[in-house]
Amino acid sequence: MKITFVMANLVSLSGGLLANASLAYHLQKRGHQIYIVCPQKRKPTGLQQVKSLLKGKGLISTKQTGPSHLDSFDLPSRILDHPPPVTDADVPDADIVVATWWETAEWVANLSPSKGAKVYMIRHHETHDYLPKERVAATYRLPFYKIVISQWLVDIMKTEYGDTNVSFVPDSVDLKKYYAGARQKQTIPTVGMLYSPLYWKGCDITLKAVSLASQQIPNLKLVCFGTRPPVPELPLPPGSEFFCQPPQDQIKDIYASCDAWLFGSRFEGFGLPILEAMACRTPVIGVPAGAAPELLSDNIGILVKPEDPEEMAEAIVKICQMSQEQWRQISDRAYTKATSYTWDDAARLCEQAFEIALCS
């Protein structure tokens, strides 16, 4: 099949771009012809430029530059020489054209039938306060064939948009990038988390849980990484170790330095750090957001109630107080779960979804 992915950004370290690129790459390995297209950024307004200058950040560029997950893949891609939208003139005729974000769905909706059967890869329910909720919701009602990455999104499409004909294609993890040998607990009890000031990422809950757990484990250490430094409104506890945009080959070592990885997102389409940590043999304590219910059930990790730092703290203490043998068992279960489903499996399921879309 000829498959075009329409993306909003190709220069990013977001989990969404990593997952889309991984899926596209494995589809390409299976013999499909892949093409990825993305527009330039919109031209900033004069007021936005002034604000950027006053903050000492210089003029805002419309060029997409910087580190990107796409750099790790040999995929044909093109950043257009104009801002959105993407139009017929920008994409080749194909069998399938994939929208990967609510705004790209608006562009794809206007493409000619010759550009391919229209598929919507839904990685989150993007009805956040900082986005135009009505426009976002409208894209989920478009007559596209939908692919979702978690059971939560399957349920959302059914209950909120009346769409029961969707394909479930969970994400996987690159086992050449995220791995660790069999190991024991750390000498100093250590937990880790992905740091983000975004409210829906739930770092306030996770940090509160760490604070509560440290009352029973005084030498508890927190390790975390993120794309931006910590903000004063969401401070890290004393003695924490923070990595800002660490090199990609260092992230596996961060995961593997922890006795448990904490996942506290209020909302999440999937939650790739869950799988990444588990592939590095680190058990996960998480709330039931995104794919956590599927990944952490059956005693593979520890699921805790949402908005409940007390229960998360209890789980932290439980894991940190396990014997080496008990911890090794839950570590092994996490690793087995993470390695039982590959990106090639995901590509195979995606092929099946595309075939349904072609017949719709």
From TrEMBL:
Keywords: Signal, Transferase. It comes from the Bacteria. Gene3D superfamilies: 3.40.50.11090, Glycogen Phosphorylase B (3.40.50.2000). Residues 1-19 form the signal peptide. Pfam families: Glyco_trans_1_4. One of its GO terms (molecular function) is glycosyltransferase activity. One of its GO terms (biological process) is lipopolysaccharide biosynthetic process. This is Glycosyl transferase group 1. It comes from Planktothrix serta PCC 8927.
